[in-house]
Amino acid sequence: MSLIEQKFARLSTDNAPGQEVRQRAEGLDALLKGDTLPGTPVDFSHGDVNESAFAPTPGSLEAFVAGVESGGEQAYTEYRGRADLRARVAEHLGRFTGSPVSGSDELIITPGTQGALFLSIASTVAPGDKVAIVRPDYFANRKLVEFIGGEIVPIEMDYLNNADRAGLDLGQLESAFKAGVKTFLFSNPNNPAGVVYSKDEIGQIAALANQYRATVIVDQLYSRLRYAGVEYTHLRAAGIDPGNVITIMGPSKTESLSGYRLGVAFGAPKLLDRMEKLQAIVSLRAPGYCQAVLRTWFEEPESYMEERIQQHQAIRDDLLRVLRSVEGLAARTPQAGSYLFPRLPKLTVSPQDFVRILRRQAGVTVTPGTEFSPDTGDSFRLNFSQNHAAALHAIERTVELIARYRA
Amino acid sequence: MSLIEQKFARLSTDNAPGQEVRQRAEGLDALLKGDTLPGTPVDFSHGDVNESAFAPTPGSLEAFVAGVESGGEQAYTEYRGRADLRARVAEHLGRFTGSPVSGSDELIITPGTQGALFLSIASTVAPGDKVAIVRPDYFANRKLVEFIGGEIVPIEMDYLNNADRAGLDLGQLESAFKAGVKTFLFSNPNNPAGVVYSKDEIGQIAALANQYRATVIVDQLYSRLRYAGVEYTHLRAAGIDPGNVITIMGPSKTESLSGYRLGVAFGAPKLLDRMEKLQAIVSLRAPGYCQAVLRTWFEEPESYMEERIQQHQAIRDDLLRVLRSVEGLAARTPQAGSYLFPRLPKLTVSPQDFVRILRRQAGVTVTPGTEFSPDTGDSFRLNFSQNHAAALHAIERTVELIARYRA
């Protein structure tokens, strides 16, 4: 294999959310027991943005159309995004995170938070650099570091055996920094486990980063969707050196605006400058007209967000109740976000095959745990930002299939 | 400088189109002679998509809105783009280029042609690989190769002293292949010179690529905007091994849809697979709702394209007539696209300073020739997809300033 073939062999996307249509069904028939279960198919690999579930926030399309109508100034923005929008969003994010953000040099608008992750990793990590990555965490984190040629140093998170903290192994993190890790990348709330790092954990991450002069990239994509009674600490406002932290957010999740491909990264101006240079050759800019939709961000109608969060919490609780009726299944209650990450009991088929069977026999699409950590192959992730009734019925079918294939 | 600092030091965007607002004005005052010239400011660094110039093609916004209304299936497409849109666009492109394209495995929808360029280069070139790049050519080509860590082998194009061919030095190209170049990247029509490669040139490029088993990436972004009597040869239909060619196009130029950030790459399935894997970690997908706008592509109202081309040709001819009144200025007539790339006569200020003066004293923004080749520092590029009258007056002011600063 040539160097470039090796590089791409590690970037498999066959199990990635939305890519299931490209999977082959080979060898599945021989494993099947019993009949197909009827019911509305539910794709838990991502949120449902249709009217019957969680549609885009009000006013988003109108803001887009106004952007098109304003013409060239919206189509051709600076590579880092239109200046007045950056200023507006920066003010909201400063207030939200508890530490001011300058729209002129501390923020970039990106094509989705995926774009923000790529730009921040590629602007921070050189080939051969060591990067600390949490297990489990968002699957693209690992792939991004591998693509750049960085070396991954895994940090364990014992999310199942903790309740008031995420469960990060801070000793491992310090050892990693001692061993030369200069970049730490993590999501908070965690994707896939839905756990929130405690104030103490965030404080210690900040202190270690300062002590070892490491750069921390924190993906806070789900930080607006927090459930009742959950305390949330923004790393950037927790005493970390502002020259060494990048925060990533976007309106794709709680706001259901994923179809507009918008994200932002904000933090250290030196790194933001690099990110803009890189964006210039990767995609020029976040889609110009779509940027206009950011006018609605953090300006949603009053009580709108509150109601959305309550609706998600109700779905979460219903699904967990059904899942927990399964003996031997383990699931921590997510504190934020819209992911459940249950661990399956022992089955007669491999967890990977069970995921394929679930899709075939129950019309239920989930993302296998292997995507998030080599240690979580017996779990799967489901995004419960769905139509409530359809999701509940899909989980009832899932539970029925677990019983059918139980070891 | 650390490895990563070195990498980014080569990616300057200060002179890139649209970035001029971030430039400092230091030291300019001392160079100025005479007064400011009144007139509507014209930004020739990119096309004008306002109603007064070349607005987006009819039906594009309606197609976008229909995409939003169709919901999740348009928001969350496969990473390579929505299947039915790929099939539709592939059919058009097969007919347009004279060789069939499969929507299922030979085409990817990208965030603009910039996204397509990045993905194709990053999927083909490994660090240390040699890549042949034309001088002059689109400035991001060089930067992309440098960012990936490839080594650039320049190929000269004598565009000023040819009329019926682009003027590529085919001997240099063969020497480059002999010396180990495995990838050749070029734009046709050429950006910035607006010249079209002859049938013979394209045939020889195909033959050399086949002989040396090199991959060719051809950026045909402007291939729909061709002027009267110009013969155009699509490389992919000129006998090149289909497993070694990627063609890039998009609706940003002739169609003025740049604000939607859409492009496509089509060709070798093996390379397309890599590009999709990479897109998955760089931006996930081209903006979902925007993809729907591709329904209008190659389906524009009859005679619409023809009229657009005639309008561009009329502007081209008017601007060239005024520019050619300047003694010592050299400009080849563009055969396609909307760029002029005149070479200035000797001035009392450097060409770089003249570009800044032009912006300050005439309200005329152009892109300095240094962006396209180290050999074209005395030229500048202007995109004449503008309001006709405003562009003409801006060029009259430019000519007045050339006279004022002439050596």
UniProtKB/TrEMBL annotation, chains A, B:
<dbReference type="InterPro" id="IPR050596">
    <property type="entry name" value="AspAT/PAT-like"/>
</dbReference>
<dbReference type="InterPro" id="IPR015422">
    <property type="entry name" value="PyrdxlP-dep_Trfase_small"/>
</dbReference>
<dbReference type="InterPro" id="IPR015424">
    <property type="entry name" value="PyrdxlP-dep_Trfase"/>
</dbReference>
<keyword id="KW-0663">Pyridoxal phosphate</keyword>
<feature type="domain" description="Aminotransferase class I/classII large">
    <location>
        <begin position="56"/>
        <end position="395"/>
    </location>
</feature>
<keyword id="KW-0032">Aminotransferase</keyword>
<dbReference type="Pfam" id="PF00155">
    <property type="entry name" value="Aminotran_1_2"/>
</dbReference>
<dbReference type="InterPro" id="IPR004839">
    <property type="entry name" value="Aminotransferase_I/II_large"/>
</dbReference>
<dbReference type="GO" id="GO:0006520">
    <property type="term" value="P:amino acid metabolic process"/>
</dbReference>
<keyword id="KW-0808">Transferase</keyword>
<dbReference type="GO" id="GO:0030170">
    <property type="term" value="F:pyridoxal phosphate binding"/>
</dbReference>
<dbReference type="InterPro" id="IPR015421">
    <property type="entry name" value="PyrdxlP-dep_Trfase_major"/>
</dbReference>
<comment type="similarity">
    <text>Belongs to the class-I pyridoxal-phosphate-dependent aminotransferase family.</text>
</comment>
<protein>
    <submittedName>
        <fullName>Aspartate aminotransferase</fullName>
        <ecNumber>2.6.1.1</ecNumber>
    </submittedName>
</protein>
<dbReference type="GO" id="GO:0004069">
    <property type="term" value="F:L-aspartate:2-oxoglutarate aminotransferase activity"/>
</dbReference>
